[in-house]
Amino acid sequence: MFLMQKATDLTASELAELLAYPTSAGPVVRATFVSTIDGAATVDGRSGVLGGDGDRHVFLLMRTLSDAVVVGARTALIENYKAPANDHAPIMVLASRSLDIPVDYLPVTHPRVLIATCTSAPADRRRRLIDAGATLIDCGDVDLDPRRLLDELGTRGLRRIDLEGGPRLFASFVAAGAVDELILTTSPTLGLGDAPRIAHGATLPLPDQDLPLPDRLPYPMSLVRQFGDDDGYLYSLWSRHSRAD
Predict the structure, then answer these.
(1) Which PANTHER family did the record assign (predicted)?
(2) pLDDT for the residue numbered 3
(3) What is the pTM of this model?
(4) Domains of the chain
């Protein structure tokens, strides 16, 4: 059992210390998501409507602690992501296999924005973005490979990675075994409908069911800490469980 702390009882520096990235020789990928109580990642196609002041604070704190924010280009467009505000903001990485990104979307040509794609992306769209001044990095052949993306970011000294979605990009990172931590905000509402979960698309093999818990789970995670707030939101930090040998 965990004693749940009240987020409003913590100072900003205390919260930053409790949610700091772990020390690691390699990259650490931390996904940041919000969902309803019944598991919906969006309402009316958007995740932003599920958040509150506390969720916004945690969301921005994760960016402050990160070297790079990785987000699907479609999610960035829907949620109206802005370019990094200054040189101290994390690098933004827009992930897109199709490169279906308008050249007049302002972050595209920002010097602190990278577009991660694959070599099979349409040549005309690739040329249009490059001609507009975008920086493209190939991280796979027919699809975007999360591990190759992390290698590319590592060569740039970017090791603390904040993965912000959407659900299909998150699922691809999980399927590649590339997610180390998750900060999940549970919004105090039910969503209904057919909205996706926070990880949606790619699948995982089911481990040997004769194994003990948690090793028989597809991608076991351990609860590190948990907070609540006066608005009814729940904030949980999860860390990937190391399987037994």
Answers:
(1) 2,5-DIAMINO-6-RIBOSYLAMINO-4(3H)-PYRIMIDINONE 5'-PHOSPHATE REDUCTASE, DIHYDROFOLATE REDUCTASE FAMILY PROTEIN (AFU_ORTHOLOGUE AFUA_8G06820)
(2) 47
(3) 0.92
(4) 27-67+163-199+213-245 (3.40.430.10), 71-158 (3.40.430.10)
